[in-house]
Here is the input.
Amino acid sequence: AQSVTQLDSHVSVSEGTPVLLRCNYSSSYSPSLFWYVQHPNKGLQLLLKYTSAATLVKGINGFEAEFKKSETSFHLTKPSAHMSDAAEYFCVVTGKGNAGGTSYGKLTFGQGTILTVHP
Amino acid sequence: GAGVSQSPSNKVTEKGKDVELRCDPISGHTALYWYRQSLGQGLEFLIYFQGNSAPDKSGLPSDRFSAERTGGSVSTLTIQRTQQEDSAVYLCASTLSASSYNEQFFGPGTRLTVL
Here is the structure.
């Protein structure tokens, strides 16, 4: 079984300042981890993913995340926030295996973090 | 190319009525997933299709919920005798092949309101 905890339900930053969205995961198996973004009235879009290659993952729009197994964390960062980054962000985990065989990609979502960017 | 599409985008229904929600995945994607996004429960998995079969229906909340997929393409999620707690956004996603590595592409969702 796997689960994800997003440590902040809301994060507020000023434009041009760094962004940190925190995520901790729990997984019985080596996880794949994703960050998805959802802009108001838009569909979910993949920002980046970790699938056991490099632990520092770079995504779209200047976002990156670092997989830290010892801390079971996968925090999302961006050096400088832009107004267009305002959205809800979801940390997502999927297992690479389960009791029945290979994983089929069932996603388990965190509760989401709403990012507000002030001018 | 075309992304995942869902219809209708909004559906308002009365308690006790049946509704059908449609998902058109990206052409060639063999795996299809339904999720539900609600205020109280967040985003939760409902059902997974590989081709036309559904190896995992474990997320369907009750036997009022059913889904099918035909021709390895279009999927329909049916909710019978709708209840107010069924109000949510229903999301469909598809991917080239079922794997924990592959990105799932999401549709815009169907917002269901049960009065």
About this structure: Chain A touches chain B through 26 residues (CB under 8 Å). The mean pLDDT of chain A is 90.
